[in-house]
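W.,

You were right to be curious about this one. When I first looked at the sequence I had no strong expectations either way, so I just let the prediction run and decided to look at it fresh. Below is the sequence, 401 residues in total, followed by the output.
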Amino acid sequence: MIERFLKYVSFDTQSAEDSATTPSTEKQMKIASYLKEELKLIGMEEVEMDELGYVYATLPANSEKKLPVVGFIAHYDTSPDCSGADVKPRIVENYDGKDILLSEGIYLSPSKFPELLDHIGEDIIVTDGHTLLGADDKAGIAEIVSACECLIQHQEIRHGKIRVAFNPDEEIGLGAKHFNVEKFACDFAYTMDGSEVGEIEYENFNAASAKITILGCSVHPGYAKGKMLNAAKVAAEITAMIPWNETPEHTEGYQGFYHLTALSGNCEQASLSYIIRDHDREVFERRKKFMAHIVQQVNEKYGNVASVELKDQYYNMKEKVDPEIVDIAVKAIQEAGMTPVVRAIRGGTDGAQLSFMGLPCPNIFAGGINFHGPYEFCPVQSMEKAMNTIVNICKIVEQKG
């Protein structure tokens, strides 16, 4: 499994938000082709890759019971936030709890990342401090492929039909957009895309974007009295109308927020981009109305100078996930020797969109930590536990019948 993972991270698969193609970067197709061949090599059936880079495969049932079809999903793109090219991973064996030198002058330190101390005595895969690692979500792929290989090699483990899928562009919110739920043909599935050991997530934010555009009136500042409307100044006024304590840096747990992601402008024109998040659907709807109300207030003050475009992005999967699916994962985690940690995602996942497309899909840990940056690391033992969790899910579904 570890050799597999180290091979995967050698592929540069960074997705791109400003692309109009699928996948968003052509280089993602290289790992998709590699995965297709690897799945054939280990003995999977019905292996196919479509023209958009989505890879699907089947592990046939070896149980005579009539069982639901279970799926496992992971994405192979990496975040645009940090380079994923020329990744140089290494394994720090039997971690001693001290600072880890990644490269000259760059340390992975428990003083900054105290979660390291939870993995003393384990073997930790790290970067050289110049790229991300790619455990998000190549660790998930390695765990799924290795779990399938385990089931193929150990026919005494009875299971129903298993489907796997690997997709591009999750990091830019488009991983589920072209996912063929009908072709995947599962009763339910799990994304292997969480972080720390034992995590299972079946709640996530409701999400929307808000883009505000302001049209000003540019006049020579020496003769501007009663004529100029500075669009950039109005944009600053709008930011001040957002509650200061309802932003990401002041919220946690189930608290939602407004997050300013971009601001640009001059006297003539300005724009602001926000994302709106909340776990509670009613509060989420109120947040969108509040954003529209701010724009209305600006227009009442200055005339019709501002407009807002609100777009829903995804919703809380809790509405669509049967608790029994979660219970199966909880039991699988327990049988792999861990304490389940059921928590809400302060973000989104392909599973949220898939759940609303008719495929209930909670999220399970893959083991990586500090995603999207050069301090990302992944304990080997966490990956082993994730792989065992997948195998256990297959066994439990067969036993439950």
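Here's what jumped out at me. The mean pLDDT is 96. And, maybe more interesting for your project: Residues 281-302 form the longest helix (22 residues).

Coffee later to discuss?

I.
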